[in-house]
């Protein structure tokens, strides 16, 4: 999969919204009291791409992500999903069209692995045979075969295994859009690399559009078809990895400096 062309670079953000955008942030600001978390945030997420939101803690990454599934609503501006403002969606139906993977998997502890993955297809009233086939297929794809893991509960799994199940659950109802909020951040380096590679394999096979939040520059370069660098709730840079590696904006340079070997 090749990354789409950048719509903004440096401190300039585009006001042109692409016809093939699955998600569009249109001059979004969001605040709590006197504190602005997002500031005039404008960005398109195109069909089939993996857009990485890269930034430090407090830069607005997760806040931007949560406006997509209407967990948060803009103070001004609009977020469009499939050309429809999130305020015009039934929020339950919107969330069922979006797979969501968070850093602690978010599995229901009283459901088995198979029941967790089957949840949204069940709510959508899929036929039982289709649900069973989907659960079996997805657990196999994430390396958690149903015969071995389907009847287990989340507290019987390692952290990495729970994250794999979380990815399978996000894919279960075949949503057009996936949101990832630092899903691999607490994993040891070996398991993290395994799951990153698995993410790329699933992306190539299933051709999903994804927004991926991270503060890890290496993860951003490895996974993203485009990278948006956030600073104080605004987009400082957005472009494909090859352009990010040549970026000269201050925050992009701060992240790129993390790629340099440590002096001892």
Give the structure's gist in a few sentences.
The protein is α/β, with parallel strands linked by helices. The protein contains ten helices and ten strands. α3 (113-123) crosses α4, α3 runs parallel beside α6 and α4 packs across α6 (159-171).
CATH superfamily of the largest domain, called what?
A: P-loop containing nucleotide triphosphate hydrolases
Largest sheet: 6 strands, mixed
Alpha carbon gyration radius = 18 Å
Based on secondary structure, the structural category is alpha/beta
Name of the CATH architecture of the largest domain: 3-Layer(aba) Sandwich
CATH class of the largest domain: Alpha Beta
Q: Helix proportion of residues, in percent?
A: 25-40%
Topology-level CATH name of the largest domain: Rossmann fold
Q: Give the helices and strands as they follow along the chain.
A: EEEHEEHEHHHHEHEHEEHH
Widest β-sheet, arrangement of strands: 6-7-8-3-9-10
Count, helices: 10
Strand content: 15-25%
Structural domains: how many = 2
- Averaged pLDDT, please? 90
Strand segment tally: 10
Low-confidence stretches: 1-19
Shape: globular
| End-to-end gap | 39 Å
């Amino acid at each position: 999969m090749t990354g789409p062309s950048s719509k903004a670079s440096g401190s300039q953000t585009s006001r042109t919204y692409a016809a093939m955008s699955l998600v569009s942030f249109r001059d979004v600001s969001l605040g709590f009291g006197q504190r602005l978390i997002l500031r005039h945030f404008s960005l398109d997420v195109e069909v089939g791409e993996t857009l990485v939101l890269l930034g430090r803690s407090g830069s607005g990454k997760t806040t931007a992500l949560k406006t997509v599934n209407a967990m948060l609503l803009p103070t001004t501006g609009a977020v469009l999903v499939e050309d429809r403002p999130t305020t015009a969606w039934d929020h339950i139906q919107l969330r069922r069209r979006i797979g969501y993977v968070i850093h602690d998997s978010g599995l229901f502890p009283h459901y088995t692995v198979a029941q967790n993955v089957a949840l949204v297809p069940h709510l959508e009233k899929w036929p039982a045979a289709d649900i069973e086939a989907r659960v079996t297929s997805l657990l196999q794809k994430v390396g958690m075969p149903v015969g071995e893991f389907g009847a287990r509960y989340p507290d019987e799994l390692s952290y990495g295994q729970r994250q794999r199940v979380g990815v399978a659950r996000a894919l279960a109802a075949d949503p057009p859009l996936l949101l990832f909020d630092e899903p691999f951040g607490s994993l040891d380096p070996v398991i993290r690399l395994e799951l990153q590679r698995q993410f790329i394999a699933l992306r190539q096979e299933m051709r999903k559009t994804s927004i991926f939040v991270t503060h890890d520059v290496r993860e951003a370069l490895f996974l993203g078809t485009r990278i948006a660098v956030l600073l104080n709730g605004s987009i400082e840079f957005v472009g494909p990895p090859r352009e990010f590696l040549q970026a000269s904006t201050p925050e992009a340079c701060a992240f790129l400096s993390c790629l340099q070997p440590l002096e001892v």
